[in-house]
Structures are given as C-alpha cells and as structure tokens.
Amino acid sequence: MGDRRALRASLTEQFGPSYEAIEATVESLMADTRPPRALTDLLDFIAPLPAGGLAIDAGSNRGKWAVQIRERHDCRIVAIDLVHGAMVLAAADGLPAVTADIEALPVRSGVADLVWCRDMLECVPDPEAAVSELARVLKGGGQLVLYVAFTTPALEPREADRLITALDMPDWWAHGRRPVQDAIARSGLEVRRVEPISPEHQERALLDGGGLARDFAILARLQRERDRCEAAMGTAWYERWRAWLVWAPYLILGKLETVAWDLRRR
Ligand SMILES: C[S@@+](CC[C@H](N)C(=O)[O-])C[C@H]1O[C@@H](n2cnc3c(N)ncnc32)[C@H](O)[C@@H]1O
Prior knowledge:
The protein is an alpha/beta fold. Helix content is 47%, strand content 20%. Helix 3 (64-72) links the parallel strand 1 and strand 2. Helix 6 (157-167) packs across helix 11 (235-252), helix 9 packs across helix 11 (235-252) and helix 10 crosses helix 11 (235-252). The protein is globular. The structure holds S-adenosylmethionine (SAM). S-adenosylmethionine is lined by residues 59-61, 65, 81-83, 86, 101-103, 118-120, 123-124.
C-alpha cells in the first residue's frame, strides 16, 4: 500500500503541474548556460606562430585542418599521414604532404614551431612512442596541440569490445585517459592547458542543424534493418559504419570523451 502511495506521488510529480514549471526552467537554462564551442574553436588553442614558422599536421588525413591553420597563420605547414591516398588528396590542395608514420617522422629534431595532432593518437599502438616523437621535432618553446578521444568508465564492456573490434583500436584505448597522460608526463612536455571538449562539438552540430541528425537517422536504420544493411555492406563495413555513427551519441552520453592539450617543449 505504501508503495502505491509512493508511486502515485512519483506520477503526480512527473506528470502534474510541476512538469510545465520544470520544462520552462530547462528552456531558460538553455539560454543562460554556456553555449557549446564549435569544431573550429579548437584552432584557438594554437599560440601565435613566428612569421614563416614551420607547422606539422600529424595524422592529417587529407589535410583539411592544415589548410585552415595555413589560412589563419603566416606559416609553412606539412601534412603527414600513414595513408598514401590521403597525402595525394592533400597535395592536390596545395599542401606539402608526406606519407609517414608519426612514430618515425621524417623530420629533423627541434625544427617545428607547432605540431597539430587532432583525433589520431587513438589509432597508434604506442602513445608514449608517438608523443615522444612529436616532442622530438619541436623547437624549444614549440607547441603541441593534442586532441584525443578516449573511452570512459560509462562505456559498458560489451560496447567497448564492439567499438574496439569494429575500428581496430589499440588495446590501450580501453583504459581511458591514463595511457596518454602517462605518455605526456614521460615526454617532458610542459602542460600549459588541458580541457575536456566533448560533447560540445556534437551539441553545436545539433543546434546548428548540421548533418548529425541525418547520421542519427542512418544509425537507427542500420539498427532497425540490420540484416538487409549488413548483407549489402558486408559485416566489417556494417560494424565500422555503425561504430562511426555511435561515436557522437557516445560522446553526448559521456561514454567517450575528447580532451585537448596545449603542450610546450621546454
Ligand atoms: C580520424 S582521422 C583524423 C584526421 C585529422 N587529423 C582530423 O582531425 O580530421 C585519423 C588519421 O590518422 C591517420 N593515422 C593513423 N595512425 C597513423 C600513424 N601511425 N601515422 C600517421 N598517420 C596515422 C589515419 O590514416 C587517419 O588519416
């Protein structure tokens, strides 16, 4: 009987007049709390560069960030990626582009003013070797802007297994921020600033009405019509595509997180 009374009280609370009041509060909180930063705001992490300075986009893919850095700063920027096809596309956009592994950069020590490394460290098998190699090429006072996606304890083990398998992520990636924090500590780089970024970019994209809503619809379709989609795409691509599409909801739910660092070589 007591439970019934508690249930009635709970239902009255949820569906009675207080609902409207809280709905109005939520709307006013949307107006009063800090709006999310846009994707390109990450470029504000970059410190002023000397005129003609050398920048490297490590793991650049086709170099869309390198192009933006070059537009904002009076610098030379080189795109570096392991995938040759991406380097061909970067070169077509007028970027010096080199096919190489960031764990063995074909760059002399102490020459770069900036290394930009966005959303790629999570692919490397050994983050300590990679961060130490990125630090090696920096001049004294040079900057490494590092932006990495991590798993969090809110990601359930089965969700983690499926994501890691689908995307061939390295084993360390199941262990949250710690392996990268340790790699930074061992690199000797000075941490000037470290900030969680997620889920601001996804929130911004939803508010701006970009393609994220369609991505969610495709995710729903992949889930709902799994057999048909998996047969057409093949299992590996079905799993990969689904993993890319759950990335944003996982960031929004805090199952994944992204963190940006401003690091300087002493
Ligand atoms: C998720 S994409 C990110 C691309 C780009 N940095 C961005 O923010 O849009 C990851 C990129 O890292 C590259 N990559 C992965 N491991 C690498 C390695 N060891 N050395 C160089 N590039 C690598 C991949 O080929 C891919 O282009």
